[in-house]
Fold:
Amino acid sequence: MEKKIGPRARLWKPLLGKPGFVQCLVCERRCPIAPGSRGACGNYVNARSELRHLGYGRLSAIKSRPIEIKPLFHYWPNSTALTFSGGAATSTVHGARTTY
Ligand code: SF4
Structure:
């Protein structure tokens, strides 16, 4: 299924020396993205030399999870944390799904 192009991203810059390329600054990968291509996570696209969101505002999962599986050492034992994620392949990019 083709993703609808969303709003312009905030964290990017034109890639100097490569006309039309942009560099995503959202995470540590700092993907250089060719015109019409996506970053490694698949959640950003270079559309007309601007970085645009794909899947902006759409969730792939939302769930209340035990606090013990979160990287919150000894914080509020036996409670839960609201966990949600977007549609990007963050598990392959960062080693674990992003939790907010
Ligand atoms: S992996 Fe995605 S968020 Fe990270 S720099 Fe690349 S395009 Fe941006």
Q: What stands out?
A: Residues 24, 26-27, 29-31, 39-41, 43-44, 93 surround iron/sulfur cluster (CB under 6 Å). Residues 91-100 have pLDDT under 50 and may be disordered. DSSP finds one helix and eight strands in the chain. Residues 61-87 form one domain.
